[in-house]
UniProtKB/TrEMBL annotation:
PANTHER family (UniProt xref): AMINOTRANSFERASE (PTHR42790), KYNURENINE_ALPHA-AMINOADIPATE AMINOTRANSFERASE, MITOCHONDRIAL (PTHR42790:SF19)
Native species: Arthrobacter livingstonensis
Matching InterPro entries: Aminotransferase_I/II_large, Class-I_PLP-dep_aminotransf, PyrdxlP-dep_Trfase, PyrdxlP-dep_Trfase_major, PyrdxlP-dep_Trfase_small
GO terms of biological process kind: alpha-amino acid metabolic process
Cofactors, names only: pyridoxal 5'-phosphate
Domain of life: Bacteria
Protein name, as recorded: Aminotransferase
Amino acid sequence: MTTITDSLHTARFADRADGYHPSPVREVFEVSMRPNMISLAGGNPDLSGLPMERIADMAHQIIKERGQEALQYGSGAGTTELQELICEIMAMEGISAASENIQITSGSQMALELVTKLFCNPGDVILAEGPTYVGALGTFAGLQADVVQVPIDNKGLIPAELEKTIGTLKAQGRTIKFLYTIPNFNNPSGITLAPDRRRAIVDICRAAGIAIVEDNPYGLLSFDGSTQQALYALDPDNVFYLGSFSKIFSPGLRIGWVLAPTEVRKRLQLAAEATTICPSVLSQMLVESYISGFDWRSHVREACATYSRRCDAVMDALKLHMPEGSTWTRPTGGFFTWITLPTGKSVDALLQPAIGAGVVFVPGSAFFAEPAGTNQLRVAFSFETDEALVEGIRRLGVTLTALPSV
Ligand code: PMP
């Protein structure tokens, strides 16, 4: 029998396989692991404040007392207990939700995939902020949806630009399925959508017959403890809300959710069952125990104090070390700041010398579906220590200053 070569297999791939590319964040991940490398790249939460002993006890108790259930298949929608706890969490952002409208997923990444699968045919348009979450771009590309990005400013998505983009696309006869937006402490820009723009954006989408996918993994991570009003709370019939325990508890447990109107939620469940049968029961039970049996809000507040302090350290270091003409956003929560280089400086030219100097980041182009962001980059301040962040920014500034302008 002749051997089947890799190229024979790849020649048989479906068209959608061309949409899957290595994530730029994952690519720099390997570089991040090098000794003495300071990583401003990955948006990992700081788990150092988690009560590991308590969590270990909870896991032990779950297996010992409810092992038959925890290690078995479970409901396709998720456990009722966790759905109810999620309703309580979302109430903190003004959302009044029924637990049966919640589909639990393996992280909000899966929720993104499900919503896109359910709504988008190849060639349908998804609107998104420019820049937007690189992982969402990967999902959308894999499902052959076209992403059109709408400009932002320091108050977030610009309503007039959204309206203009919708008008242009409609005039071209394009089908727009939804606006994908990260209103709070956006990944990658760090920007939060201003309160007065929320109603405008909800109204524009409603009038244009476009749904909204509100992705909100960072909403509870404000530096001052305040919460923003969810878009979902403004128009529950037209917004699908994506939440996650990854940033407020643990990304490793892979538990997120979608809140959607009844018919959509039911179809999401069928799509979820076709993918994973059911979310991990053990993970859900551990999240349930943690949320109901531990003062998780205090943990979040403590983690936010750390993120806030690290963000301040980065802001001060940027002021000190970045060359004239550089600008950056000033986040009020979350994990990221977004840097724009002075005219003539290119991020592509900066990356390798920066790695050589011992600092790595994600280039801005990763956050755009079309060529853009070539003079921009994302800095994550969530994971490295204050000292490492300051040193990382210093290395970045020194490398950038030495870089010839193009
Ligand atoms: N959306 C955004 C904006 C994110 O930043 C992330 C994680 N980096 C996700 C979704 C996916 O998170 P999860 O771990 O819940 O899948």
